Design the sequence.
């Protein structure tokens, strides 16, 4: 189970609540930073599906501002659902700028390899794509005819890579309406990494046959596209993008700002980005949640940021600062990691707390937290 699951429902959350006694004061800063700030809202009344889809899609857009990396959850989801094969997904991952210089042998397993500031992280043993494939090569959770969509997906991904390369320079606002449509599609495919596609009407087209690229584009919801464009406008107009550029060390045009979707404990979150470099980086959790004054939810954001930094025991990501980006407000709230930990622990020894946390994570790995009614 993921770190966030154990923070929400299990012993990790209980441990954090007991040991991080300064959490309340830290959470209050989020309320103070967003007080009186205008909010980007949907155009009308929308359901939970809309909120979640916009959140995933905006996370995709933020990742492309930082690094031209394979959309890992998207490719995992396509394999898991049976829309594409494992070999297809590895081949696609190897075509992205982060992975294209891998050697021949490494490109055959490119999806399982993740860049860090100190080298490559290989997920094959702990969370490789093979876990979603049966011995005969078929997807374990297939909902569609195996590999039938690869031809159209090849066309779609070729077009998307070319569009992002042309219209989405690192750290800059680009052709946002077109980019929003592509991010919406990517977010929909990433949905099936952790969820059943039967819950999404979008995938009905794949049960009836194989849609064309044009048909996939027509399925994009225009109200979501409008909202995504507004979120990018808020990112730029609020000064949040400039602040992230500062946190990244003011990289020159054309240079990646950091790492998209860093991995912690063999898991990754589609809303995480890392800006900076080997001399120090900032882990940013991007959220498009509307209500940031929910203390129970906000404290888990804080705990997860610290937990992820602690899980990087090899210091592969050089995390020295952590931050939340509250996308609907255009507000970046950042803390030097050491200062945040000190405030959370209320004067307790941070190294002792870190070791306790890591020991608990080790014990809980592979277990499922009990969900309270």
Sequence:
């Amino acid at each position: 189970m993921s770190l966030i699951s154990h923070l929400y429902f299990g012993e990790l959350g209980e441990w954090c609540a007991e040991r991080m006694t300064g959490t309340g004061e830290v959470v209050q800063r989020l309320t103070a930073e967003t007080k009186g700030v205008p909010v980007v809202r949907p155009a009308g009344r929308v359901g939970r599906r809309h909120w979640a889809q916009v959140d995933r899609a905006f996370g995709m857009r933020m990742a492309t501002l930082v690094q031209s990396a394979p959309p890992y959850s998207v490719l995992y989801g396509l394999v898991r659902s049976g829309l594409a094969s494992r070999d297809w997904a590895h081949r696609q991952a190897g075509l992205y700028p982060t992975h294209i210089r891998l050697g021949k042998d490494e490109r055959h397993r490119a999806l399982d390899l993740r860049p860090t500031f100190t080298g490559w992280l290989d997920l094959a043993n702990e969370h490789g794509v093979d876990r979603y494939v049966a011995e005969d090569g078929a997807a374990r959770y297939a909902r569609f005819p195996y590999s039938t969509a690869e031809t159209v997906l090849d066309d779609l991904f070729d077009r998307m890579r070319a569009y992002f390369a042309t219209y989405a320079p690192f750290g800059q606002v680009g052709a946002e309406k077109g980019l929003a449509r592509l991010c919406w599609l990517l977010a929909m495919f990433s949905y099936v990494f952790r969820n059943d596609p039967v819950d999404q009407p979008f995938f009905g087209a794949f049960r009836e046959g194989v849609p064309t690229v044009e048909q996939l584009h027509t399925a994009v919801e225009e109200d979501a596209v409008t909202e995504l464009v507004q979120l990018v406008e808020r990112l730029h107009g609020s000064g949040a993008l400039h602040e992230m550029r500062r946190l990244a060390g003011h990289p020159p045009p054309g240079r990646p700002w950091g790492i998209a979707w860093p991995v912690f404990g063999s898991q990754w979150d589609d809303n995480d980005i890392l800006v900076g470099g080997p001399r120090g980086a900032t882990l940013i959790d991007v959220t498009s949640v509307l209500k940031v004054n929910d203390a129970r939810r906000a404290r888990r954001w804080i705990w997860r940021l610290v937990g992820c930094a602690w899980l990087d025991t090899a210091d592969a990501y050089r995390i020295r600062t952590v931050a939340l980006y509250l996308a609907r407000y255009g507000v970046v709230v950042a803390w030097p990691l050491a200062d945040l930990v000190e405030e959370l622990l209320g004067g307790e020894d941070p190294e002792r707390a870190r070791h306790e946390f890591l020991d608990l994570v080790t014990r809980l790995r592979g277990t499922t937290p009990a969900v309270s009614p």
About this structure: The chain has 17 helices and nine strands.
